[in-house]
Write a structure and sequence with these properties.
Layout (H helix, E strand, L loop, with lengths): L7 H10 L41 E5 L2 E6 L2 E6 L7 E7 L10 E5 L2 E6 L2 E6 L7 E7 L3 E11 L2 E10 L3 E8 L2 E8 L7
Length: 192
């Protein structure tokens, strides 16, 4: 069509086939929006993993053979290496004992970032089964984080960019010594 977008039913076919690239759009195979819908088959593992009710789940991210669950005031590390036997590898309490819950986890490179009201915590994932806290940072309501690694004057520098609902964009430097505030870009929010 004139939008250049692949018709939705063709995307479903693409996902079912497990292809790694989107199909080429071919105008001769246009999809009739009023036509018959194709049924999709969903497959579930024969071995569902059930976690104890003690683990609250606010968010989950995965890397390699591990899942990281934002669980109340801790990060729950789940071993996903054997689909017939998922299990909790360990739990890592957040450094700040006053955090009752947090909402978001972000994995970027070798870092796991836990975001919660009032700030967040950065973990090193060099050993995926055992995240190590590099430190915490203060914010208001962080919504997302991105890690940037680059050479600056011949030295590796790691910067954490945090999009904060009430605080604009905050920047932190991540080193072996911890997480240090670097600056922020205050975004003007018009009054309602």
């Amino acid at each position: 069509d004139e939008t250049g977008l692949v018709p939705l039913t063709r995307l479903h076919e693409f996902e079912k086939q497990g292809d790694s690239e989107a199909p080429e759009d071919n105008d001769s195979e246009s999809t009739d929006p009023g036509g018959e819908l194709q049924a999709l088959t969903l497959e579930f593992s024969d071995y569902p993993a059930e976690l104890s009710a003690e683990y609250q789940g606010y968010d989950i991210v995965t890397v390699q053979e591990y899942g990281y669950l934002a669980g109340g005031d801790e990060v729950v590390v789940i071993n996903l290496g054997d689909e017939t036997n998922y299990f909790v590898e360990t739990t890592i309490p957040l450094t700040d004992p006053d955090i009752a819950s947090f909402a978001d986890l972000v994995i970027d490179g070798n870092y796991l970032i836990a975001l919660y009201p009032g700030g967040g915590e950065v973990f090193d994932l060099s050993i995926p089964a055992l995240p190590i806290s590099l430190g915490t940072f203060i914010g208001t309501y962080p919504r997302h984080a991105v890690v940037d690694n680059r050479l600056v004057n011949g030295e590796n520098e790691t910067t954490l960019f945090v999009a904060d609902y009430s605080n604009g964009l905050s920047l932190y430097t991540i080193t072996d010594d911890g997480v240090q505030a670097r600056g922020f870009l205050d975004l003007d929010i018009p009054p309602e």
